[in-house]
Design a protein that fits this description.
Shape: globular
CATH topology of the largest domain: Ubiquitin-like (UB roll)
Number of strands: 6
Strand content: 5-15%
Strand order of the largest sheet: 5-4-3-6
Largest sheet: 4 strands, mixed
CATH architecture of the largest domain: Roll
Amino acid sequence: MLNPQVDLELGYWEIAVDEACQELLSYMTHRKIYTPRRIPQGCCDAALFFQATIEKCLQELMYQHLLLITGNGVIQNPERIKVLSELPYPTNEAELQQCLCEANWMRESVIDFARAAQPLQDRLDLALANASRMTKRVATGIELGLGEVGRTAFDQLKDKLENSASLAFPQPDSIMCLITHVSEVGFGIIVIQVRHWQDGKPVEKQQRELLVCVSGTFTGSKRNWSVIEKEVYPIICACDQLSHLLLRPQGFRLFCDHHNLIYVFAPRK
């Protein structure tokens, strides 16, 4: 059996950037402004576009002369999840800080992550606010008493990590759906794709694939926003942060449970 090693380090440079989009990727140094004409590594959707391009180029060879190791999407490492699920309650602020940092790497596949982690984050922020420096060494010396609320939040967060969802690879011809939900304290965003949309069927009965989860909590002055302002906020966040998934020639479909938003985004309908 032949196991060739292929280095695609410069593969991005083989893909040209459309002239209309080159200015968007420009960057400025102390000497001049550089405008790339090839796909640069590091922009938010470069990896997704590069992967889709390679699959398209090798489509005729797929499963005959070329084997795709996995096309089922992205899942979290089961061993890593097992380690996190077996963690004891943290005894100092450094341990809590490390737990939250580890869990944060998985938040894109965890629904309602922010609200579950918020009590723990508030506890950490309160302790570090009185510290001289926000370093791990300082945090190690701060004893932690989670209390009943903190222990419940810690257990709930571990449960969510154990039930993290699989994420699919975005497909260029799929129908993109943005679904948002808002409560008094936070919001949730998920983006799904439907490869074969069936007219007449509601979105919950379509054959769906999850692409990403985003969640957050309302803090500071945001807590005083009106209901419609809170409902609009995650939609704006999604269009800003997830534009690499939502900006398609055929657009995307928006689903929420606030009827009045129709008059905000589509006043003529």
